[in-house]
Write a structure and sequence with these properties.
Elements lengths: L2 E2 L9 E2 H27 L12 H18 L9 H29 L12 H12 L25 H16 L6 H20 L16 H24 L6 E2 L1 H13 L12 H22 L1 E2 L3 H35 L4 H38 L1
Parallel strand pairs: 3-4
Antiparallel strand pairs: 1-2
Helix pairs in contact: 1-2, 1-8, 1-10, 1-11, 2-7, 2-9, 3-4, 3-5, 3-10, 3-11, 5-7, 6-7, 6-9, 7-9, 8-9, 10-11
């Protein structure tokens, strides 16, 4: 079946194939971050493999918009209050925010509290950074609690920047966006799409890509907000318009293949005023990713392996996203210390890092995330 029942028993059934694709995207994020390590450690201009893996974040936002719109739009004023919505979202998201911050602090301690410039951060500042991370309070570049010295919003667990914007998206949805008619939502989404296209194709960030949002400055704040708002709204639109018809088979593996290919497209250099890499990014975010979500929502699994794969990957996806980067920090430091900057030199260690990330995510999923969310759901009812 394409629909399965989630942990919250009074929640709507959800689309299993979308869960599976979220897991695929999470696996590809980890893969991408391995090659980001070679770029960071070797101070290379571009990432030389899996170059567009950062677009998985935009895919996550589209999935989030679809799921939130589908699960909650029809329930406001009936079985759902504002407080109830925020309670559900906090239960769903925040336990992994907390454990990700703790694992990040442990990872930083294992590196000797070493900043990227070779100096050390005081343990007291690490504790402040940990406390702030647990409450999703971002650090400003140059603050003492920016303990790694790289300007990250959340220096103990960098990918939390996208959760910061996810929280903003959920707040805006509950207070404002849910009230939009479908026509108004379409106009709102179109305006946001034009703004993101301007940002990406005009290369406003001067990064050559829209890999922004991870730090707090004018460009990253704007870019991160656009990266969240447009895909989130773009995901909400099909959640209102989609009518499930005849189920299509083989969708999961086809969509997986498309994501793998897209995320491995090399960087597209530009010669003129337009950023061609930005054109590719916008095509993915505005056209291909929504089409994948629509197509996958129409799909079904017809064999036990695909069904189990979607369920497992769906459960693993969020824990994997939230705990893998502390492992990457140690990997990046090792690359810098050993002066090794390619997969060919370090493939055994790289695969070990990937495996450790998966095992750590599974342990957190099995013994922390699922039990804690069940307990919180039980005591909050």
């Amino acid at each position: 079946m394409a629909l399965t029942q989630p942990i919250n028993s009074d929640s709507k059934p959800h689309y299993a194939l979308l869960d599976g694709l979220r897991g695929v995207a999470a696996l590809l994020v980890v893969w991408y971050h391995i090659f980001e390590g070679y770029q960071f450690a070797g101070q290379k201009a571009i990432i030389d493999f899996a170059n567009h893996g950062y677009l998985a974040v935009d895919f996550f936002f589209i999935l989030s918009g679809f799921v939130v719109g589908y699960a909650y739009d029809s329930r406001w004023g009936k079985t759902l209050t504002l407080g109830g919505f925020f309670k559900r979202r906090i239960i769903r998201l925040h336990p992994m925010v907390i454990i990700g911050a703790v694992i990040g602090a442990v990872s930083f301690a294992l590196s000797g509290n070493a900043r990227w410039d070779g100096s050390q951060s005081a343990t007291s500042m690490v504790m402040v950074a940990l406390l702030c991370a647990m409450f999703m309070i971002p650090a400003l570049p140059g603050q003492m609690r920016d303990v790694r010295g790289n300007g990250e919003m959340f220096p103990l667990n960098g990918p939390c920047w996208s959760l910061f914007f996810e929280y903003i998206g959920n707040i805006l949805y509950a207070l404002i966006i849910r009230r939009f008619s479908t026509a108004v939502l379409a106009v709102f989404t179109g305006v946001l799409g034009c703004a993101l296209a301007w940002f990406a194709i005009g290369d406003v960030s001067q990064y050559g890509c829209i890999g922004v949002g991870w730090t707090i400055d004018e460009v990253n704040a704007l870019g991160g907000l656009l990266r969240m708002l447009f895909p989130f709204s773009m995901g909400m639109l099909p959640s209102r318009l989609f009518k499930k018809g005849k189920e299509v088979t083989g969708v999961f593996w086809l969509c997986t293949l498309v994501l793998v290919v897209l995320f491995h497209v090399p960087y597209i250099a530009s010669n003129g005023a337009l950023c061609l890499n930005g054109v590719f990014e916008i095509v993915c975010i505005a056209v291909v990713f929504p089409a994948i979500v629509w197509y996958a929502a129409s799909g079904t699994t017809t064999d036990r392996f695909s069904t189990n794969a979607c369920a497992f990957l769906g459960n693993l996806s969020y824990p994997l996203y939230m705990v893998h980067y502390p492992v990457m920090y140690l990997f990046y430091k090792w690359l810098i210390d050993t002066k090794q900057y390619s997969f060919g030199e370090t493939w055994q260690v790289a695969l070990l890092v990937y495996a450790v990330s998966l095992v750590l995510a599974w342990v957190c999923m099995k013994f922390y995330d699922i039990p804690v969310r069940r307990w919180l759901t039980k005591i909050s009812n």
